[in-house]
């Protein structure tokens, strides 16, 4: 196993996927350690075919290159709790527990987004309990671009496989049976979002960023990022400094979200991050990233994991259902 050290280490998953249980546990132990410090890692050896990634990237670039009138035709329905389609303006940072929502909304993220969710597929109708908001089934909005929906569906399927694999490694790292999370994520409600960060011919307002300081919301995020100026940074809390997340060819950035921090009774940390603006000299450049915001089944009850509590460490949070938790986050960031 190759592990490059650092706050955001590079971890090779091929050892975990080799069929050797000993190597699998070693990788899981390493991941557990990282989740206790930064909650951010870069994975290689993940098994996702290069063609699936490059098709997704090509389709994404074609979509955002469309005239704005075309993109606006797919504008997310304000009633859609998960914001499928072309993104409305807003600020992820507004979802932070201590954020001033009006202040954050006044400085929207300088990005465009496009979001897809399996719950918007006609085949996913059985994935929600009877009391869930029926608008969670809002249909996905597809651009009329050749190969686009195929590329997205194929990429999403590859991310589902990788997320399931990582959740199994998480389980091992947390001293749980390997398949502990399986029945809590088999009807997952994950948003796949493409972020487009356009060139900035006009300088951003003071304090305005490509993505404001935020933490992610769900169980884990799998992010593809291209190499471009004005990139992803994570806060190293111990040293109060912002660190660039390394861009490693063929890799994904993995980070845990608020839900996983809550699930682990804060043994694992959901670290804040941001996307910076390019320098004025590089303001003509653009950037793309694709987070897969893994979110457990709507009715998965997120209550303190048994190995994360003890006599001196009682549960810090009340149980919450995954679906109610995530829709609450959306309302805060983008709602009325
Ligand atoms: O663009 C990136 O690298 C990260 C974006 C991000 O943090 C997010 O969409 O939650
Ligand atoms: Fe994020």
TrEMBL record:
<dbReference type="InterPro" id="IPR005123">
    <property type="entry name" value="Oxoglu/Fe-dep_dioxygenase_dom"/>
</dbReference>
<dbReference type="InterPro" id="IPR044861">
    <property type="entry name" value="IPNS-like_FE2OG_OXY"/>
</dbReference>
<dbReference type="Pfam" id="PF14226">
    <property type="entry name" value="DIOX_N"/>
</dbReference>
<dbReference type="InterPro" id="IPR027443">
    <property type="entry name" value="IPNS-like_sf"/>
</dbReference>
<keyword id="KW-0479">Metal-binding</keyword>
<protein>
    <submittedName>
        <fullName>Oxidoreductase</fullName>
    </submittedName>
</protein>
<dbReference type="GO" id="GO:0016491">
    <property type="term" value="F:oxidoreductase activity"/>
</dbReference>
<dbReference type="GO" id="GO:0017000">
    <property type="term" value="P:antibiotic biosynthetic process"/>
</dbReference>
<dbReference type="InterPro" id="IPR026992">
    <property type="entry name" value="DIOX_N"/>
</dbReference>
<dbReference type="InterPro" id="IPR050231">
    <property type="entry name" value="Iron_ascorbate_oxido_reductase"/>
</dbReference>
<keyword id="KW-0408">Iron</keyword>
<dbReference type="Pfam" id="PF03171">
    <property type="entry name" value="2OG-FeII_Oxy"/>
</dbReference>
<keyword id="KW-0045">Antibiotic biosynthesis</keyword>
<dbReference type="GO" id="GO:0046872">
    <property type="term" value="F:metal ion binding"/>
</dbReference>
<keyword id="KW-0560">Oxidoreductase</keyword>
<feature type="domain" description="Fe2OG dioxygenase">
    <location>
        <begin position="187"/>
        <end position="296"/>
    </location>
</feature>
<comment type="pathway">
    <text>Antibiotic biosynthesis.</text>
</comment>
<comment type="similarity">
    <text>Belongs to the iron/ascorbate-dependent oxidoreductase family.</text>
</comment>
